[in-house]
Amino acid sequence: LPTTTPNRRFKTPVQQKENLIMASTGGGGSVTSAGSSLVGSAHTSSALQSSSAGVATASNATSMSAGAGGGSGGGGQGIEELLPLVTHLTNPEKREAVLLELSKIRENFSDLAPILWHSYGTVAALLQEIVSIYPLLSPPTLTAHASNRVCNALALLQCVASHPETRSLFLAAHVPLYLYPFLNTQSKNRPFEYLRLTSLGVIGALVKMDDADVINFLLQTEIIPLCLRIMETGSELSKTVATFIVQKILLDEIGLNYICATAERFYAVSTVLSNMVGVLVQQPSVRLLKHIVRCYLRLSDNVKAREALRQCLPNALKDDTFNPFLKGDVTVKKWLAQLLSVLGGVNAGGGSGGDVAGGGG
């Protein structure tokens, strides 16, 4: 099972191209993933004998029905229809169809997350879905069917990650670590891209809550180097969500101090951002550029990082390269103008120079 390993330093990954496969919400707002409609024959692995420490499985879902009645909506389904579906998650023969159904209706029930978390064996069943496809990651043999099925399970975990009553329990059980093997894949195939994007959606739902405990947890893991690699090698949508995650980490004071604590960490991030700007010159994306500029602007809040940015800010952000694409986006234009104002007399050659914290890892 995954373990938490403190991340003392991280390296810049190499670039690689991948395909665009699905939509996510831009503009720094909600980062979501949708369940797929493909259902095939059940493919199950041996059951997990126990879930991680911190996963509550003692109470029965029916005991929560009194407090969850206000969450019904959509296609006329109420709590009476929801509870049997949740219970069926522990049945291997019914699980695949139930995962698909719950992923479709999950937004109709505000209390789905606590029901999932506190139902006996439900979280263990979702984790079983995740670990059962680990053998398909290397060598890369993941099929579209297997990817769709596990992504439906991840969509339910995203509900748990974003709910205020279950978020801390989700972190205490170290559930995000189960997703890291998915983020670490590099195959260009659509099933892998879909899997990475949906996994990023779970992490994005965590950081969107602006919870310092979330940032503290993530900084003890390898999330930054994983996101950096996706920012360079993923599809536009995966890049956008990964950059959003790094942005939210930077916006937290602890996250900013962590990344700017050493020159190695700072240049790992700034080099990837610079490479992304270079790609956007050829393939513009205002949605992605918005997150990149916000990352640069936040880095400039650190005194030593600000000095370094005067040397390494990409030329494309200093001149009028992106002006034709920013006519309708006042926010990005404002952030970019503020960044250039803060940096003052930025040097003309955006290379790599300056010191952040002097010293390595």
What report would you give on this structure?
The chain has 361 residues and is mainly alpha-helical. The chain has 17 helices and no strands. The chain has helices at 79-88, 92-105, 112-118, 122-131, 144-162, 167-172, 180-183, 190-207, 212-219, 223-233, 236-251, 253-259, 263-282, 286-299, 303-312, 315-318, 330-343. α10 (223-233) packs antiparallel against α11 (236-251). The longest helix has 20 residues, at 263-282.
Concise account of the structure shown:
By secondary structure, the protein is mainly α. The chain has 17 helices and no strands.
Spell out the blueprint of helices and strands:
Blueprint: H1 79-88, H2 92-105, H3 112-118, H4 122-131, H5 144-162, H6 167-172, H7 180-183, H8 190-207, H9 212-219, H10 223-233, H11 236-251, H12 253-259, H13 263-282, H14 286-299, H15 303-312, H16 315-318, H17 330-343
Helix pairs in contact: 1-2, 2-5, 3-5, 4-5, 5-8, 8-11, 10-11, 10-13, 11-12, 11-14, 13-14, 14-17
Separation of termini?
Answer: 27 Å
Whole-angstrom Rg: 21 Å
- Count of distinct strands: 0
Low-confidence stretches: 1-9, 11-76, 348-355
Q: Which percent range fits the helix content?
A: 40-55%
Strand residues, percent: under 5%
Question: Which series of helices and strands comes N to C?
Answer: HHHHHHHHHHHHHHHHH
The number of helical runs is 17
- Morphology: elongated
The averaged pLDDT comes out at 81
Largest sheet: none
Structural class, please? mainly alpha
